[in-house]
Amino acid sequence: MSLMADTLFGLVPVASSGQQWVARDLQVVNWGGYDGRHRIRLASTATLVSGASGSGKSTLLDAYVALMMPHTTPFNGASNGAVVGRPRGRDQRNVLSYARGKIDESRTEAGTRERVLRGADGDTWSAVAMTWADQSGRRFTALRGWYVPAGAQRVEDLVAVRATTDADLDLADLAPSAARRFRRTDLTALGLVCYDTDRELTARLHTTLGIGAAGGGAKAVGLLARIQAGQQITTVDALYKAMVLEEPETLAVADAAVEQFDNLTEVRDRMLAAQRQVRALRPIRAHRAAVDAARERTAVVDAVGGPDDPASPFCVWRDERRLTLLRDAEAEHAATARRLTEHAESARAVVVGTEHEHDALRDAVRAQGGDRLEAVERELARAQETAARVRAERARLDRWLAELDASVTSRADLDRQRAASRGFVAAADASRRTARDERLAAYEAVTRARAEADRLEREHTSLGRRRGNVPDELHRARVALAQAAGLDVDELPFVAELVEVRTEHEHWRDAISLALGGFALTLLVDADRVGAFRAAIDAVPSAVRLRFEGATVGVVHHGSVDASLLPGRLDLRDGPFTGWLAERLDDRFAYVCVDDARDLGTHGLALTRTGQTSEGRRGAHGGHGRASVLGFSNTRRLADLASQLDAAREELRLASERSEGVDLRAAAAEEQRAVHAQVAEAEWERVDVVGAERAVADWSAQRDALHAGSDTLRDLEARLREVAARLDTQRQDAARAAVRRDDAHAAWERATDAVDACQTALDRAADKGVEVTAAQRDYLDAGSGVPLSLDGFDGAVRALAAQTVHERALAAAEERAGLDALAAIFTHFTDTWPNPDLGTDPDASYADFDRLLATVESEGLHELEGRWSRSLAQLSGNDLTILHAAIGRSVREITERIEPVNAILADLPFADADHRLRIDARPVESAVVARFRKALRELATDPTSKRTEAEQEARFARMARLIDRIRRTSPDFADLVDVRRHVRVSAEKVDLAGRHVALYDHIGEKSGGESQELVAFIVGAALRYQLGDAAAERPRYAPVFLDEALIKADARFAGRAVGAWRGLGFQLVIGAPLDKVGALEPFVDAAYEVVKTPDGRSRPLAVVGLDD
């Protein structure tokens, strides 16, 4: 038979040794209001601690909490259930406030100051201790002490002591050790065993005092703490769940499922991020390769150079190839020159022979009278040339005369026309100045019209982009100042932009504009920023002088004023300067608007509709014709400008037409003058065609007469003409041969010079160490082809030079495109996944991104989709299955393990000797819980076969929704996971035969005494099991502290409640107010009253004392 019973509260012994520890006394030193050492003896049965509210009775009971309970248990839990903050934190009672004896807080000039009983100006210390005794007389004492330095602000600043002893202990004996900050040697000398941690002390307490079984002491102490706090509970169900049932395993299982899912979600997010990162970064290697290739091509092209650098490999390669072609060309030109020289010499010899023949025939002709004939032929040729020249001159004169609609047939006609033309030229020269002045005036008119149209266009465009009617030059100057000062244009308004003439007073617009004058064009600056504004604009040049004024922002505007005054006829635009502007207008421009100038003198400040102002004996008038600059909106001004712009454009068109007309008339006059000037210079001899032709006829007749006089002469002349024609042909052939010879020699010389120059260039390049590498030679040879001639090579070189420029530009474009692509990828990546260690420079940051890509690829997260899917399936198959099973199992355990509690209650009379109390637990499951468990079951049993990506995503979404419902932060969490809500606990009174007599569900329906008796029965029975004494005659650990307990019962029910606790074998320490002492005192064997002195110090007075 097993010696341990498995209950809801853990493993407990079926029987115990009968040993029981009872609290013998409680000691405190410097604890709260208890200044110095205080000790109360506790009865082994029941002890009452009472006192007025605030006297310190709960402080005394909190000493037990400080000694026995974990640090998460709040102090004064029964009296202050509404406190907030961390248990024992700065906002609640804590060890530090108890150790110093905090009274209250007061406000001082330096801030909030605590009023304390001790430790305000120096160190102090505090301690609590309890001594237990068993029925054999064995003693056991546990204590906690704290040394409090003067500057301590937190509990962590204290020096803590944890100790036990198997004997009685007087805390006064700790004073010497406390003075030395609780030195371990001092404590050991007192017979104390010290512990370094709360865990060690707690383990010793639980083991020695028999609190709990099989390591269940923490649960038992937790229940003791809840019992001592004794918060109000309205139902048996809530009572049992709050004070008896521990947190079910389903919460931990659900947390594990959530954690596992969150881990999977994190892996999924990292996996998806890795996939996106890999997709985003994979192109960078191709882009980088393209950039490197482009840079390599650029490097080759740059290294080759171009035709403009004689010391470049390009020029060396060109000169080497060219030198070979030039040497071949030089040899070819040399052979050609020799051959053509021989041909030219032969042709010259033929000419010399024919010249001899021609000279002989010419001598024979002279002998036959040829000298006279030769002279006549010379004069005939001269007359023919003169006639041709005269005909050309006459043709020009006829064209000029045709333009003048005139003609001449004789010398007299020409003289008259020349005189008329000279007169016209003189008159034209005299009118040139007038025409020039007329053209200048026309040009000036066009310039003025164009300038006006441009001005109106600029102003219309400027106003179209902004509000207000301030001229463009002022606006642009304002913009420059605003930019220099770091202000928005709206933060630097003109006064004119903030005021508008009301519609009913529109006819006063010009007058109001004149009255406001320069103030309307004053810039307003926030008064707090004027200094910074002045400093910022000081270096800004401006052709326009602007006035500005500091205005106070935020001044309250109280609305409109009298409409008879100028400010009352204006609307002000809402903004930060509105209130200030309204006050300024009221102060400086409160003109009374009068319709008759005779009324000006009747007011201190007055204004007429024409804009005349009166200020006492002073006044002002004039300035009309300028456009108003006032107004929020410039719609009216834009319409006016549009009309003016149309008119200006029309004026520009007319002026341009007038100017073109003047230009045309001037050009026509100049053309007429030029024709007349030509006619005026004409001479009759140069245009007399008839006379010139007559001279040609006369000389022709003389030549014919000479020929007719001799047949021999005619034969000789015929032969002479034939030889002369042949000689002329031979001379031409010889000349052409000589030209070809000279050209050949020149080409030969040029080829030789080119060879020398090319060789010189190569020699200079060699001296500079310029060489053409094999790679460069291959690149240039491939680009130039294999030209067979020098001309072809020169063309190929020009094409190659252009090709290198093109290739360099292409390589640069490819490099730029690659770098831009890298920069775009890097920028997108850092925008999507911010990382301060990653830049976006395509060169400087590439290694980082390539390393990142390699890292992501090596981690393989982007390829974990299959493994993640299997993990998700495993989650549904494991954690969700465990959760589903845990929910069902925990519900069953609650209902099954309540029977041991009922077994204890079966032996304890309830109300009277004929009745007992029995606890009943019934499962309850709402529709929401049922649907949740169904969804849980479906996901848990979902087959793990392969799914499509869409199906996998859908399943993940379903699981995410379910997991979100079981998170601690979910509003459904408690209803779905906390199985204590799946069970309804009630109590019923039964007779000895187990028959139902009465139902106890809502505790609030019972009287105060009945409810407290019911609580005592239920909680007391449960505590027996928590303490591990299920079947023992009495619990091994007897003390139960009840703060503010049994305060709703009269004497009869209070006695029954105390009897219930005593019947279960517990020792009671009850804290109660003074008005409940009468009900409880008959049932206790020791009673104390706590009193507090006016200075805030507490002390317990024995009302019913015990002997030492």
UniProtKB/TrEMBL annotation:
Annotated coiled-coil segments of the chain: 366-393, 439-466
Biological-process GO terms, alphabetical: DNA synthesis involved in DNA repair; double-strand break repair; SOS response
Annotated Pfam families: AAA_29, SbcC_Walker_B
SUPFAM superfamilies, sorted: P-loop containing nucleoside triphosphate hydrolases
Gene3D superfamilies per UniProt: 3.40.1140.10
Annotated keywords: Coiled coil, DNA damage, DNA repair, SOS response
Name used for this protein in its record: Uncharacterized protein YPO0396
